[in-house]
């Protein structure tokens, strides 16, 4: 579990940081006023990252950063002034980055930097470069940013590694490499990994004009000229990964139902098509519909109906947290029980149905009971349209029979 330590002695600055952390960081954040208090907190907790003031009343010469780094805590430094001596001092210490405290925006930048570093934590990156020294340097710099880093000595090796591991989210590739250069690598990678799924930063030595434009036209997100400053490398990587995260957030938002937070019909159909490609495994498609839902809206109003949908959603999540659930209509839900046979799925859904009927829901503060009718069908070696038609027919039969039951149908 991620946890952040902030050490800052200014009441005003700490108040600003607390406010921004509450808005941007979805992790535990501990605040300390001094080195002594920071040491005490470090003794009690394991920290993923530290954001510390370079100068404190009991640590005037950066001792707090030295201490956090000695405890292997990646550290971002806040400083009220910067000169070449202080810059070199921080680089030699091995801090991730430094932020100059000169206006409110700098605190905003610092917290957003921490948020991105936390997203980097455990994220996979790949460095492709034929120079051992260059690979080692970039690997160390990326590891400071909390990436899990692999390296490749040429384009062909990098390409194979990317094919083998779809979890790699960042590629840094040099231009001049044997067997396959950086351009050819980027073009080959973009055949199966898009810009919204894998970030690529191209690299090349100084003096080679036009390479940056060609890299980007072939599919790179950004470009760096070697030799580069630590801060430039850090900023380019962070900005590139932030863009990737923003795109992921936008896509996630587009695939979510605004009321329940479940996946919506659009996502469900895309996901279901992927499941159908695994022809070697058994799957079951279930359609679930709340019985007499119209009565809730008629009796209590549409806001009460929204309450009911949210409560049913919460109950569904607790019972099917290992499967994909979607809201595909007003009071209709879909669940794909992948890698499961029909008999086992029917048993599990009947257990769910019984537990749902016994569960005490609340509508406008009043106790209320709900039931669901469920239609299921095998979901392998069939078309999505055919499976949906069968599951919908089974659901209709469940509604016609007695409601609060499970009906299964199979194609002939």
UniProtKB/TrEMBL annotation:
<feature type="domain" description="GGDEF">
    <location>
        <begin position="281"/>
        <end position="411"/>
    </location>
</feature>
<dbReference type="InterPro" id="IPR011006">
    <property type="entry name" value="CheY-like_superfamily"/>
</dbReference>
<feature type="domain" description="Response regulatory">
    <location>
        <begin position="124"/>
        <end position="241"/>
    </location>
</feature>
<dbReference type="InterPro" id="IPR001789">
    <property type="entry name" value="Sig_transdc_resp-reg_receiver"/>
</dbReference>
<dbReference type="InterPro" id="IPR029787">
    <property type="entry name" value="Nucleotide_cyclase"/>
</dbReference>
<protein>
    <recommendedName>
        <fullName>diguanylate cyclase</fullName>
        <ecNumber>2.7.7.65</ecNumber>
    </recommendedName>
</protein>
<feature type="domain" description="Response regulatory">
    <location>
        <begin position="3"/>
        <end position="116"/>
    </location>
</feature>
<dbReference type="Pfam" id="PF00072">
    <property type="entry name" value="Response_reg"/>
</dbReference>
<dbReference type="Pfam" id="PF00990">
    <property type="entry name" value="GGDEF"/>
</dbReference>
<feature type="modified residue" description="4-aspartylphosphate">
    <location>
        <position position="174"/>
    </location>
</feature>
<dbReference type="InterPro" id="IPR043128">
    <property type="entry name" value="Rev_trsase/Diguanyl_cyclase"/>
</dbReference>
<feature type="modified residue" description="4-aspartylphosphate">
    <location>
        <position position="53"/>
    </location>
</feature>
<keyword id="KW-0597">Phosphoprotein</keyword>
<dbReference type="InterPro" id="IPR000160">
    <property type="entry name" value="GGDEF_dom"/>
</dbReference>
<dbReference type="InterPro" id="IPR050469">
    <property type="entry name" value="Diguanylate_Cyclase"/>
</dbReference>
């Amino acid at each position: 579990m991620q946890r952040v330590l902030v050490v800052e002695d200014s009441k005003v600055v700490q108040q600003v940081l607390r406010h921004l952390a509450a808005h941007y960081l979805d992790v535990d954040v501990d605040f300390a006023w001094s080195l002594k208090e920071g040491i005490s907190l470090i003794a009690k907790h394991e920290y993923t990252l530290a954001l510390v003031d370079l100068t404190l009343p009991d640590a005037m010469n950066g001792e707090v950063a030295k201490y956090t780094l000695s405890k292997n805590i990646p550290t971002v430094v806040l400083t009220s002034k910067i000169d070449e001596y202080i810059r070199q001092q921080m680089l030699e210490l091995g801090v991730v980055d430094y932020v100059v405290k000169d206006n409110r925006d700098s605190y905003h930048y610092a917290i957003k930097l921490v948020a991105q570093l936390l997203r980097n934590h455990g994220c996979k990156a790949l460095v492709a470069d034929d120079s051992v020294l260059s690979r080692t340097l970039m690997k160390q710099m990326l590891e400071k940013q909390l990436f899990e880093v692999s390296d490749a000595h040429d384009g062909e090796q990098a390409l194979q590694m990317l094919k083998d591991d779809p979890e790699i989210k960042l590629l840094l590739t040099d231009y001049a490499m044997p067997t396959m250069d950086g351009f050819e690598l980027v073009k080959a990678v973009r055949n199966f990994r898009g810009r919204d799924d894998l970030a690529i930063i191209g690299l090349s030595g100084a003096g080679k004009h036009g390479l940056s434009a060609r890299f980007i036209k072939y599919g790179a997100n950004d470009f760096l000229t070697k030799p580069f400053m630590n801060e430039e490398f850090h900023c380019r990587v962070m900005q590139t990964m932030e863009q990737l995260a923003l795109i992921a957030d936008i896509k996630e938002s587009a695939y979510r139902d605004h009321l329940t937070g479940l996946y919506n019909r659009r996502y469900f159909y895309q996901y279901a098509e992927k499941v159908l490609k695994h022809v070697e495994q058994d799957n079951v498609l279930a359609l679930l519909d709340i019985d007499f839902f119209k009565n809730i809206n008629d009796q209590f109003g549409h806001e009460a109906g929204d309450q009911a949908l949210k409560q049913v959603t919460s109950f569904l999540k607790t019972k099917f947290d290992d499967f994909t659930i979607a809201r595909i209509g007003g009071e209709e839900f879909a669940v794909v029980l992948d890698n499961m046979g029909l008999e086992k799925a029917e048993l599990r859904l009947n257990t769910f149905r019984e537990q749902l009927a016994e569960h005490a829901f609340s509508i406008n503060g009043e106790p209320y009971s709900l039931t669901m009718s469920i239609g299921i069908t095998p979901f392998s070696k069939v078309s999505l349209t055919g499976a949906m038609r069968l599951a919908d027919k089974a659901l209709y039969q469940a509604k016609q029979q007695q409601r609060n039951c499970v009906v299964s149908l199979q194609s002939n």
